UniProtKB/TrEMBL annotation, chain B:
Signal peptide: none annotated. The chain crosses the membrane at residues 12-36, 48-74, 86-108, 158-179, 186-209, 229-250. It comes from Oceanobacillus caeni. This is ABC transporter permease. Keywords: Membrane, Transmembrane, Transmembrane helix.
Amino acid sequence: MNIKVDQLSLHFENHKALEDITFEINEKKLYGLLGRNGAGKTSLLSIIASFREPTSGSVTINGEVPFENAKIMQHVAFLYDKDYKDESDNIKELLQGIQRYRPNFDMQYAEYLIQQFKLDTKKPINKFSKGMQSAVNVVVGLASRTPITIFDEVYLGMDAPARDIFYKELLKDQENHPRIIILSTHLVSEMDYLFDEVIFINKGKILLQEDYDSLLSKGATITGDRDLVETFVQSKMQLNEEQLGHTKSVMIYGELTNQERKMAMEQGLEVGPISLQDLFIHLTEEENIDEKLS
Amino acid sequence: MKNFPKVARDMFWAQMIWTFGFLGVMFIINIVKIVINLVRGTEADGYYASVLIASNIFMIIIGLLAIYFLPYYVENGVTRKDYFKGALLASVGLSLAIPIITAIISIVEQFIVTTLLNINFRGIDIINEVVSDVDGNIIGDLVLSVILTPYVDPGSNWILAIGVFSLQLFIFYLIGWFISASFYRFGTVTGLLFILVAIMINLLKDYFLRISLGLPLSDRFSTLDSLPQGVTVLGLLLLIVFTVWIIRLLTRKVAIKM
């Protein structure tokens, strides 16, 4: 499957949720969609999942518009922080209903997941705690085995052990049944190891889309004597700086050449890695960041 | 692979479970009434008559709930179109099933009550006459059009009786669905306007049906009495098509609420 988003915009009466978004997703990988609150993550995902139509631009999946397209829609699952207050079915009944509409649904696997999350199969879902309802979403999303599976902040309310089960099962099932999985989150530090590829979205625009490893190799912290560090980073895009006495540490964005690395070493500067979380925080807080990146 | 037959089946059974609950409660009420009448030695209302009156309101209510199946289906990868077709088929099924089940129960009941217990059921032809006693009050018309709908005695022509019963139920379901779809699509303020349209649909249905069946009409619309039956039957048909069409327009591209 392939998702192609082309010049997509979504406008509401008084604000622009998405503005001219273009990107492509082609491989059966885990994609992290990262953005701050209100960045437009859910808006974007809800268009891919045919929950709504865009104002302009297009989404195509395998070359076809997914909206009201039965062939495509059955292969796209969108799990979000759903309100289950009216769901009086228990989880087994819920899954039996869903199974009828998802061609790849695996009930045995669903039952295994229910055990992992220790969900009560007799209890109506609206009596579940918030975290357990989130686990229901995870079970539905994973067991549906849809070629495109979207988890939008689906872990909300889950405690740390439950989240850990989610991440483990996600990786395990992705290995056995590879598909396109999009994880939207702002729990970056906790989930970064899951991503094969990362998409940053900020104020309704795509900031960057990059392979996780190559993205990390683009950022660095340069630490050392204040004056030396300042000269070294002069030509670089600086994300953040900290200073303690004469020692300064600057986070930069942009690949370092071998020559530059060598020079840093010769000057006694320390070149350290940067975490996805740091990149996320500092890239999304900058003003006019898209101009700087391009 | 088409999804709408599956949707139709699933929605039919989900709503049939509610229907069994409703018919069951009506049955218990009816038994209690019969016992009371047995003690007093008076005439009792039959099951058919009781359900005939209450089921209209029941259908409006489940019609109002019909919109809540829409997000469920879209979330599970079913198109709005398949939902619409499936829900429509299910509502036709329900509208047929309720009168048939009711008729069967009431035949059995009548047999037991009249032959074994020896009490008579009250005739309910009065339903059709009441309308001429209400003089030109729109609220009165409205209330009547919901609770005292045009009625055909199953004893005289049971196919027509069940047909008219089914038709009423179907239109009441559509009215409920129409209102909830407008609220889902436009929110409260515009939704209220759609309630006005729904009331008009209901009143028109009542008048068309009364003329088609040659039943008494309230004074307000007595001028319409001269309309030939062919026209009113066609009017009834167009009314249904219009309502169904608006429901489709309201749900065709609607954004799913999250």
